[in-house]
Amino acid sequence: MYSNGLILNFRQILKPKTLRFISTTLPSAKFKNESGSTLNIFDRNTKNLQRQRAAIAEDVNLYDYLKDEIGFRLADRVFDIKRKFKLAADIGCNRGYISKHISPDSVEELILCDVSQKNLDTVSVMDGIRVRKQILDEEYIEFEPNTLDLVVSCLSLHWVNDLPKAFKKILESLKQDGVLLAAVFGGDTLYELRSSLQLAELERRGGLSPHISPFTEVRDIGSLLTNAGFTMLTIDTDEIVVNYPTVFELMWDLKGMAESNAALNRSVHLQRDVQFAAAAIYEQLYGKTDPETGKVTIPATFQIINMLGWKPHPKQPKPIERGTGEVSLKDLYKLDEIIKEIKTVKNDSEGR
Questions:
Q1: Which of 67, 137, 174, 187 is deepest in the core (most CB within 10 A)?
Q2: Are 91 and 119 in contact (CB under 8 A)?
Q3: Which of 241, 337, 351 is nearest to 298 (CA)?
Q4: pLDDT at position 317
Q5: Which contiguous run of DSSP H or E holds residue 133?
Q6: Burial of 281 (0-12, 13-18, 19+ CB in 10 A)
Q7: 113 and 136 in contact (C-beta within 8 Å)?
Q8: pLDDT value at position 20?
Q9: What domains can you pick out in the chain, each with its CATH number?
Q10: Strand-pair category, 85-91 with 2-3
Q11: Residues of the chain with pLDDT under 50
């Protein structure tokens, strides 16, 4: 897939774990200090300003390639659910990365929610879907209880300070047997850039500063959804690798996507000598040479956590009671023999 002169590769990249000096993953974006008060990790005003600026940029279309791909995949997952949802909400819709791919066969009415009116004005949906537009900050999700059949979100919830609260609010807004389908960046996102910046600052400054915001791990998403009250969870990950000419194009595109660092303790200024050192380290550690053209590119890995959760309903499938199984796991190696034996017993009983 080609976009903005870059190649999107869907493949695995070797991750040298020895270069991960700092843990940047949190089960929740909030933590408590010694006094017991809750502290925010992300500066929501900064993040909203970044999104507003990206929305009004003249070249905003150039930076849609990654989120468009992820939005298309999410919309395809909505289509896989064989149900027509009467009322759905797209939280943090941005420029409609999911909404423009949703089929009227899947959704009757869609509420588009974003912090930017400019984004809401530019979103387009397929004919046949009724649309409502609403200014909404993902930090403060408010809908009437038990009104929505489906909630979708594409790459916006990872900037929320209180994910447990956000998930609970979404659960409250859903009807029984309603569905949450969302995608966020995972903990392995931009590990190449993080490692290169850490090594560059160690070499040039003798210390480290946080330049990349923390991301949530897969295991934490499952716990958060379960604690919020969702059932029948499905959580999986994708890895999308984008090849860039240099680290500078990567950082420029992150700014255009409004995915720049918005952590409260971030280091705003990145010195020029550190930038050039990071670029050299990045190319040395991760650079790939095209055998045909001889050009060197650098890969940037984006780990996508996809989550699917259902609001409980009495008629939903439930696990059988513990201890009611008829076959031990230790006998799985002879499963074929057990099945043949069961079929033989069944045929004998029918013959009688």
A1: 174
A2: no
A3: 241
A4: 81
A5: strand 130-135
A6: buried
A7: yes
A8: 32
A9: 2-351 (3.40.50.150)
A10: unpaired
A11: 1-37
- Cβ atoms of 57 and 256 within 8 Å: the answer is yes
119-157 pLDDT per residue, tens = 999 999 999 999 999 999 998 999 999 999 999 999 999
Structural contact between residues 298 and 282, judged by C-beta atoms closer than 8 angstroms? yes
246 Rama sector, left if φ>0, alpha if ψ -120 to 50, beta otherwise: beta
- Tell me the one-letter amino acid at 325: G
pLDDT at 263: 65
Q: Encoding tokens for residue 27? A: 């089960």
Please provide residue 115's backbone torsions phi and psi, each rounded to the nearest 5 degrees: -80, -15
Q: The tokens of 271 are what?
A: 């010195």
Tokens of 69: 């791909």
Model confidence pLDDT, tens digit, residues 200-245: 988 887 776 777 777 888 889 999 999 999 999 999 999 999 999 9
**pLDDT (0 to 100) of residue 2:** 32
Burial class (CB in 10 A: 0-12, 13-18, 19+), 241: middle
> What's the confidence (pLDDT) of residue 346?
54
Distances (CA, A) of 318 to 179, 180, 210, 312, 326: 17, 19, 44, 10, 18
Is the alpha carbon torsion for 77, 82, 84, 85 positive or negative?
negative
The whole-angstrom separation of Cα 215 and Cα 307 is 15
Q: Which pair of structure tokens corresponds to residue 98?
A: 């999911």
Distances (CA, A) of 206 to 202, 279, 320: 4, 18, 57
> Model's pTM, two decimal places?
0.78
Cα 231 to the chain's mean position, in Å?
Answer: 19
The first and second tokens of residue 344, run together, are: 């033989």
- Tokens in use for 166? 């956000």
Q: Please provide the DSSP assignment of 87-103 as one string.
A: EEEEET-TTTTTGGG--
Residue 307: predicted pLDDT: 96
Q: What is the pLDDT of residues 236-260, one digit of tens each?
A: 999 999 999 999 999 999 999 988 8
CA dihedral 258, 252, 236, 220 (to 10 degrees): -60
**What 8-state DSSP symbol labels residue 288?**
E
Pairing of strands 130-135, 107-114: parallel
12, amino acid identity? Q
